[in-house]
Amino acid sequence: MALKWMAGGLLVFAAAAWAETVSWEIAADPGSHRREVLANGVKTYSPDADVRVQEHLRRPDGAVSWSKSLVLSDGFAVSALIRRARALDGFGLVVGRRGDKNAYGWNWFERVSDTEFERPRAPGRVAVTTTKVDDDEVLASVEFLEDVALRYLDDTRRPPGAYSHEVVIRKGSVLRFAAAESDD
């Protein structure tokens, strides 16, 4: 919190807003042809104001999960599927694009140490923080330890293994997820 003296001896308090930064690039990958960068930038955001939280249907056992998404550009968003777990052994980052109805953008990460996770069959290391809710862990943030290319397929009728786009999140970027009131 910053303090500032004003004329007349008034003390004014100004709270600094919590902000994070994600550096990104969106590229089309037409297969064997040349990779085409469509957009790139740096997004400074507030986890409380800019991260969209959507609760999913509860399972019969009462468990619930949330998608927490940050829009980057051109209708593209990166989200995490957040759920409570005894131990967070893995999680998915999802790329989505507004308007694509038959798309797939799931990118899985598995724990390799206390806070570090990797993609099993593709380059990509991240560090995570979790929060405790009762005896469970909940994903709170993802810091990118290297550039990570998240794959996206705009039409699942394409051949297996194909993808149409990649969203590269640059080293040092942080995805921090606002806590939903129902997280705890």
Key terms:
mainly beta, 1 helix, 4-stranded antiparallel sheet, 184 residues, 15 strands, 9-stranded antiparallel sheet, globular, 52% strand
Describe the 3D structure:
By secondary structure, this protein is mostly beta strands. The longest helix has 4 residues. The protein is globular and about 50 Å long. The protein has one helix and 15 strands.
Task: Give the structure's gist in a few sentences.
The chain has 184 residues and is mainly β.
Please state the structural category: mainly beta
Radius of gyration: 19 Å
- Percent of residues in beta strands? over 45%
From N to C, what is the helix and strand string? EEEEHEEEEEEEEEEE
Biggest sheet overview = 9 strands, antiparallel
Number of helices, counting only DSSP H or I runs of 4 residues or more: 1
Mean pLDDT, all residues: 84
For the largest beta sheet, what order do the strands appear in spatially?
5-6-7-8-9-10-11-12-15
> Spans with pLDDT under 50 lasting ≥5 residues?
1-16
Q: State the distance separating the first and last CA atoms.
A: 27 Å
Q: How many distinct domains? A: 1
Number of strands: 15
Shape, per Cα inertia axes: globular
Residue share in helix? under 10%
